[in-house]
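Private note to self, pasted from the team thread so I don't lose it. C-alpha cells:
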C-alpha cells in the first residue's frame, strides 16, 4: 500500500521527502475522516435535533487546523527544500486541499446512515414532546378565562398576594 502511494507521488514529480509527504498527507486525510465521524457521533448522541452551524462543528474546526498545517508544510517544502514549484505539485496540493473536507463529509455521512434508525427515533420523540406541549398549552388556553388565564392578570395577582 505504501509503495503504491510513493509511486503516486513520483507521478506528481515529487523527488525529495516522499516519505514525509506521504505521512503528512495520510495523517491529515485520516484526521479529517475521523473528524467527520466524531462530529456525526456527537450529533447523533446529543439531545439536539437540529445540527449545529458549520463553524461550531468539530469536523470544521479540525478541517481548518489541518488546512493550516498542510499549507505550512507546502510553504516549507517549496521554499526551503526544493525552492521551486511545478504544475504537478500544485495539482497535488490543490487536490489534497479539496479531499480533506470531502473525507470529513464522507465520515459524517457514514455515521449518519448507520445511525439513521436512532435519528428517526429521536425525531419521533421530539415530535411527541412538541405535541404534548401544544396539547398542554391548548388545555391551559381553554381553561384560561375561568382561572385567570391572562398572564398579566396572574402576575398582578401574585404581586398582590391574591389567588388568580
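Design output:
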Amino acid at each position: 500500500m505504501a509503495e503504491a502511494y510513493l509511486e503516486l507521488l513520483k507521478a506528481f514529480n515529487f523527488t525529495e521527502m516522499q516519505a514525509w509527504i506521504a505521512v503528512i498527507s495520510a495523517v491529515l486525510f485520516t484526521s479529517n475522516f475521523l473528524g467527520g465521524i466524531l462530529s456525526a457521533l456527537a450529533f447523533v448522541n446529543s439531545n439536539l435535533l437540529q445540527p449545529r452551524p458549520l463553524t461550531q462543528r468539530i469536523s470544521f474546526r479540525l478541517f481548518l487546523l489541518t488546512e493550516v498545517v498542510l499549507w505550512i508544510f507546502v510553504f516549507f517544502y517549496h521554499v526551503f527544500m526544493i525552492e521551486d514549484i511545478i504544475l504537478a505539485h500544485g495539482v497535488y496540493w490543490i487536490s489534497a486541499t479539496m479531499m480533506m473536507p470531502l473525507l470529513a463529509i464522507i465520515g459524517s455521512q457514514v455515521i449518519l446512515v448507520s445511525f439513521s434508525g436512532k435519528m428517526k427515533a429521536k425525531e419521533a420523540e421530539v415530535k411527541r414532546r412538541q405535541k404534548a406541549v401544544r396539547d398542554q398549552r391548548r388545555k391551559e388556553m381553554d381553561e384560561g378565562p375561568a382561572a385567570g388565564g391572562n398572564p398579566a392578570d396572574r402576575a398582578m395577582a401574585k404581586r398582590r398576594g391574591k389567588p388568580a
